[in-house]
Amino acid sequence: MKKVVLLTTMAVVSWMACTIKGSFQGLYITNGIDLKNCLKNKDKAIISIWAPKCKGEFCYSLNALQTKCDLKNTTLFIVAEYYDSDLMQVNYQTKKPIFGIDVDYYNSNTTSRYLSSFIYDVTYQQNLRGRFLYFENGVFKKSFEAIEEI
Fold first, then answer.
1. To 5 degrees, how large is the angle CA 101–CA 106–CA 111?
2. What's the CA gap between 78 and 94, in Å, rounded?
3. This prediction's pTM
4. Which of the listed CATH numbers 1.20.120, 3.30.70, 3.40.30, 3.40.50 matches domain 19-149?
C-alpha cells in the first residue's frame, strides 16, 4: 500500500512540474515557462517552431523530424507558430501532441509578438536563428535551421 501511494505521489509531483493549460481541437495550449519546465527531465530535447504552411528550404515534415530525433535519442516538442485547422487535423506520427502558444498569456494575437515572447521565455534570448531550439536537461544550448544539426 505504501509503495502505491508513494508512486502516485511521485507521478503527481512529476506532472505538476510540467503543467500544460489545456487543449483546443487537439492542440495543447502552453506558454514558454510551462513548456520549459517539461524540458528539465529530458537529457536532450528540441522545440521545433512549426509553421504549418511553410514551403521554404528549412521546412520539414513533422514525421521526418520525429524520425531524426528518435535516431538521436532526442525528445521532440512541436510548437505551432500559428493555428491552421486543416493541417492540425492531420494524423502526424509524432510521440507528443502539437503545442500551441497561449495568446491569452502573452496578451497578443500578433504572431511576431507572442512568438518572440514565447521564445524568450524558453531560451532567455532574443533574435535567434532558425526554428529549432536545442536543450540539455532543460538548459538552452543553441538554435539552428537545418535538420542535419539535430
1. 60
2. 9
3. 0.83
4. 3.40.30
